[in-house]
Amino acid sequence: MSRILVTGSADGLGRAAADTLLSAGHDVVVHARNRERAAALDTLVDRGAHIVVGDFTERDAVGRVAAELNDAGPLDAVIHNAGVWSGPAVMPVNVVAPYLLTALLHGPRRLVYLSSGSHFGGRPSLDGVDWRGENAGSYADSKLFVTTLAAAVARLRPGVVSNAVDPGWVPTKMGGPSAPDDLELGHRTQEWLASGDEPEALTTGGYWYHGQRLQPHGAVHDEAFQDSLLKALAEETGTAL
Which of the four, 92, 129, 135, 183, has the lowest number of CB atoms within 10 Å? Predict the structure, then answer.
């Protein structure tokens, strides 16, 4: 049994992953951005899940969630699932929050970051990025950045298994009802990387889609770009990785 945090688990892929992991006997921590959203998790909490609440558009809230989790004991794995498609929250939620949780949480030996095929359209440039979300952010850029973060963590923390997962364009609230991909396959890979004991599940630095390791955008494994991203986020948040 592992203790696993799934961020953004009130609905969609996050809820599906939390549900499956809970059914498999893991100690699951679910997350919602506010108390209203947390009510949707009552059925999982009744089955034994623990819950944390915090709005990931607010850096102080991310810090409070990290402190609460650290006080409760070390996590074995984190699935960084929380994400938004458009608007000012794109960079704070999709990039800054997983960066801060990675820097602040004690102990997780497995980290899974939700990427997207859209990351191939991202620009490997940090010029003028609005990390604070005062303006609408680029979803494609945010997914390129978080995929690069996953690769950077794999390089800099050799004892940690860090991977990025493209769940596909699946029929969730974000993906829409006509999305063509398989919802079930959309959450299985991140569960496997967070808890599986097969040799492939213990590899690091990968970009995965439906159980297959693929080549990501060329910038993802560019160490200079990784270092530039980490430096920008450390300066922006006042928190080094």
Answer: 135
Cα separation, 25 vs 176, whole angstroms = 31
Task: Express each pLDDT in 22-66 by its tens digit.
Answer: 999 999 999 999 999 999 999 999 999 999 999 999 999 999 999
| Residue pointed to by tokens 């494994």 | 221
Structure tokens of 66? 């990290």
DSSP letter string over 51-99? EEE--TTSHHHHHHHHHHHHHH---SEEEE----SSSTTHHIIIIIHHH
- Per the confidence metrics, is the pTM higher than 0.90? yes
* Catalytic residue (one of 99, 139, 207, 209): 139
pLDDT tens, position by position, 118-149: 999 999 999 999 999 999 999 999 999 999 99
Any idea which residue has 């939620």 for tokens? 93
Which 8-state DSSP code applies to residue 138? Answer: P
The answer to whether 231 is a known catalytic residue is no
Q: Distance (Å, rounded) from C-alpha 102 to C-alpha 157?
A: 11
Catalytic one among 99, 113, 143, 207? 143
Q: Which residues of 212-235 are buried (b: 16+ CB within 10 A; e: fewer)?
A: eeeebbebbbeeebbeebbeebee
Q: Which residues contact 87 (CB under 8 A, 6 or more apart)?
A: 136, 137
Contacts of 24 (CB under 8 A, 6+ apart): 191, 195
